[in-house]
Every structure is written in structure tokens, then in C-alpha cells.
Amino acid sequence: MNIFLATFLFLIPIFLLLTRGKRSSKRVPPGSLGIPFVGQSLAFLQAMRANTAEKWLEERIRKYGPISKLSLFGKPTVFIYGQAANKFVFTSDSSTIGYQQNHSFRMILGDRNLFDLSGEDHKRVRGVLVSFLKPESLKQYVGKMDGEVKQHLEMHWQGKQQVQVLPLMKTLTFNIICSLLFGVERGARRDKFVACFQEMIEGMWSVPINLPFTRYRRGLRASATVQNMVKDLICEKRVEVEQKGASPHQDLITCLLGMCKEDNEEAVTENEIVHNVMLVMVAGHDTSSVLMTFMIRFLANEPTVYAAVLQEQEEIAKTKPSGEFLTWEDIAKMKYTWRVAMETLRMVPPAFGNFRKALKDIEYGGYLIPKGWQILWTSPMTHMDNSIFPEPSKFDPSRFENQSSVPPYSFIAFGGGPRICPGYEFARLETLVTIHYLVTQFTWKLCADNSFSRDPTPIPTQGLPIKLVPRKLC
User: Fold this and answer.
1) With b meaning 16 or more CB within 10 Å and e meaning fewer, what string describes 175-211?
2) Do 143 and 325 form a contact (C-beta atoms < 8 A)?
3) Can you tell me the distance from the alpha carbon of 238 to that of 289, in angstroms, rounded to the nearest whole number?
4) pTM for this structure?
5) Which residues pair with 163 in a beta bridge?
6) How many domains does the chain have?
7) How far is residue 157 from each of residues 160, 190, 323, measured CA to CA in Å?
8) Is residue 6 situated within a structural domain?
9) CB burial string 323-348: b at 16+ within 10 A, e below
10) Is residue 129 part of a domain?
11) Residues 120-154: pLDDT tens digits?
12) Least confident piece of the model among 139-153, 192-206, 376-390, 436-450
């Protein structure tokens, strides 16, 4: 019996080694997970704010190679980069890789937002959002967006000798979101949304330490307030649709409420509506405001590009009687202006990168990415690769004249593959309407240098102050 027991105990570690070997013959990528829980989060955030995150990652690549491990926002993470890495991330089966936002993002926006869903849940909720954000639906909102832009310029730009562009663009995009997507008009409710919104965003990319006076704690408090406000909106919209006969397509919330399955079950739950409304608020606010801000900066620095944009927009303006809104057909004519926007997104992507989650053990690049680990992808590592975009530091909208000439999965400002950003057309519409009125009504000069930081989106020096001159006075 003793011999049998001894033999059994001797075989246990051998059995464990053999079964572990069957799991994968690969090892995890090189690198260090750093200090428990904090890892490299503080160093990464510091590099983002100093606009040196690309160099920070390049140092990792020189030290560890094209794939390495680290710890960000409390999670073990694998950093991968390059065109092949982008394709791997954006085309992998939903049973292999899922969305994985950092803990702060998920806790503040809610775990039923589109970025944290996978499989059938992702497909279901994405389908509902796309039904509202697709071009066929957006056509009816061009006039309303046109009115919001005109009103914004009258209130904040006209009669001013100098303005700060980024804060004004954030005001504009937030007003457009409130009006077109949620049906919240100007007033006390919209002002309260604004007050909580910024604190919520600041907490999303913070180390998730829930202590008084931390960004994360303030973000959680602001999130709770915003969620309650959105729930109140949902109740009001439900009454408007069910009892007052309001159109189920008057805004995003009514559209979400109106989507039901044939078996009368809700296509989206109330929590999913709340969390995805908040996601759209964040995504639509920051990305478009950053894009338009940096377009204004590049147009000030690139007179030839500015002249071409102005010519295109003036030709459209000449066809519009005074006071008439732009139409979807007008937007379709703004081809060069959108190429300028694409080149702006290439050089200054609003989202530096994002996370995915390994839903099972994955072998990639000769290494094992363990189940549950985060996968970090980044935009600038291909956007500024001179083997993909020659002279990457040169602003050249002609790169996008022929979309087929841009290598697949190299330009990823809107993601790629089946999970490309559903708000792409909304951002395009918002940007082109705004730039149309800016270039036809004003000319401007920069009042600060071209530097910017990331927190986490790009923030130009002093919010990009410009000297403003009405074109009729030029």
C-alpha cells in the first residue's frame, strides 16, 4: 500500500505537467506585469498626457519585440501592433475575442454597453443602433443638425475676435447629441447633463481606486446621476410613444424603445438602453469634437488644403438660397472635405487605442494569450508607419482619394471589419455640416503652437485659441 501511495504521489506532478502541456506548448509574451493591480497604468497614462505614448510603446517594442505583456488598469494585458495585429483583433470570431474595456470604463458606462457585449448580444444591440445610425435614417436629420450648427455659430462665434476651438466643439457636439439623439432641448436638463458628463469622462480612463477625491470616485458619482437622468428620459419617451402617438424614430431612445422581437420580447433591455445611450454620448462627443478641432488646426497650417476645401464648400453654398438648410445630396458632394477629415484622423486619431479580451486561450505571434487577458491595440502604430503611409508626418488628403489604395486594416480610426464603428455616418454628417459653415463664414489664424497632449483624447495647447475674422471682412 505504501509503495502504491508513493507511486501515485510521484505520478501526480508528471500528470499535471503533461496536461498543462496539452493546453498549449507556447509561453506567454515577454515583459513584466509590474506592481500588482497598478502595473504600468500610471506610466502609460503619464505618457498619454505628455503625448509620448507612441515612443513609450516603441521602447517596449525595441525591448520585448512585437508582442509583449504588461498590466493596465488592473488587468494583465498583451500589447500587439501592426496591420496583421489589427486584422487579428477586428476579424477574430466573437467566441475568441470580445470587447474588453478597462475596469473604470465598464463601471462608469455599465457592462451592457456595445463595447462590452459579445456574440448574439453584441449582434442584437448593434443591429438596433445601426438601424438608427444608418444613412437612410440619418437623411431626415440633416436639417435639424444644420439648425443646431447655425445656432451654435450665432451664439459662440459670430462677433468674436478670438475663440478657443476645442471647448466650443465639445459644446456643439454635446448639443447635437442631446437634440438629435435624445430629444433634450436647451435648458436646465441639458445643463445638468453637461455638468455631470465631464466628470464621468474623466473617470473612465483612470486607475480604478475607489477612494474619496479620486477621479474614479467622481466618475462613479457622475455616472449614477447621468444614469438616473437617462432612466427618467426613457420613462417620458415611453409615455410619448405609447400614449401620445409620438414617432418611434424621433430620436435614438424612442428608436431603441420601439425595437421589439416578433415574440413580443424586448430587443433591448432598459439597462442596455441606458448603457448604450451613455456610450453614444461619450463616443459622439469626444471623437467628433476632436476631429473638427484638429481639422481647423490643419486648415490653418495648410493654405493649399484650406483653399481646396473653401472652393468645394463655396460651390455648394452658391446653390443654396439664403436660409435654406443643407441636404443629404449636398453632403455627398463634400468629397474632398471628407478626405481632409480622414487625413486628420490618420494623423491625430481621437482614440489612441482600445482593449479586447481573450475569451479563450489564443496562440498569436508564437505566444500564448491566456484566457481572460486584455489585448491592447493602438491606432498610431499603423497610421504613422512609413511603410504603409509614405512621409507619414506630411498632411496629404490625397492618400484617401482612392480608398482601395489604402492597405486593409492600416487606417483604423473607426475600427475595422464587422465591428466598424456604427456611428461612422453620424460623425461624417456632423463634421461636414460644421466645416461647411465655418469655412464659408470665417477665416482664422492660430494663436498657439501645434503641440497637444492626450487625456485620453487629444487636447491641443490652450484648447486651440484662434483669431477669428468674418469672411465678408477679409
Assistant:
1) bbbbbbbbbbeeeeebeebeebbebbbbbbbbbbeee
2) yes
3) 31
4) 0.86
5) 466
6) 1
7) 6, 21, 18
8) no
9) eeebbeebbebbebbbbbbbbbbbbb
10) yes
11) 787 788 888 888 888 888 888 899 899 999 999 99
12) 192-206
Domain assignment present for 17 = no
Report the residue count for the chain: 474
Cis peptide before 456 (omega within 30 of 0): yes
- The alpha carbon of residue 193 and the mean position of all alpha carbons in its chain are separated, in whole angstroms, by 20
On whether the CB atoms of residues 79 and 68 are closer than 8 A, the answer is yes
For residue 248, give the CATH number of its domain: 1.10.630.10
Rg of the chain over all Cα atoms, to the nearest angstrom? 24
The sign of the torsion formed by the CA atoms of 173, 296, 314, 442 equals positive
Element (H, E) at 468: strand 465-470
Tell me the per-residue pLDDT of 307-364, one tens digit each, with 9 for 90 and over.
999 999 999 999 988 879 999 999 999 999 999 999 999 999 998 988 888 999 999 9
C-alpha separations of 215 from 39, 72, 111, 431 in Å:
18, 17, 19, 30
**Count of alpha carbons within 13 angstroms of residue 335, beta-carbon side:** 7
In a domain, 335, yes or no: yes
* Residue pair 451/460 in contact by the 8 Å Cβ criterion: yes
Question: Environment class of residue 60 by beta-carbon count within 10 Å: exposed (0-12), middle (13-18) or buried (19+)?
Answer: buried
Structural domain for 240, as ranges: 29-61+68-473
Contact residues for 322 (Cβ-Cβ < 8 A; gap 6+): none
Q: Which three cell numbers stand for residue 309?
A: 476645401
Question: Which among 108, 100, 292, 114 has a CA at the least distance from the CA of 197?
Answer: 108
Give the pLDDT confidence score for residue 118 in this predicted structure.
Answer: 73
Q: How confident is the model at residue 100 (pLDDT cuts 50, 70, 90)?
A: low
- Give yes or no for residue 264 having a pLDDT over 60: no
Tell me if 85 sits within 8 A of 377, measured CB to CB: yes
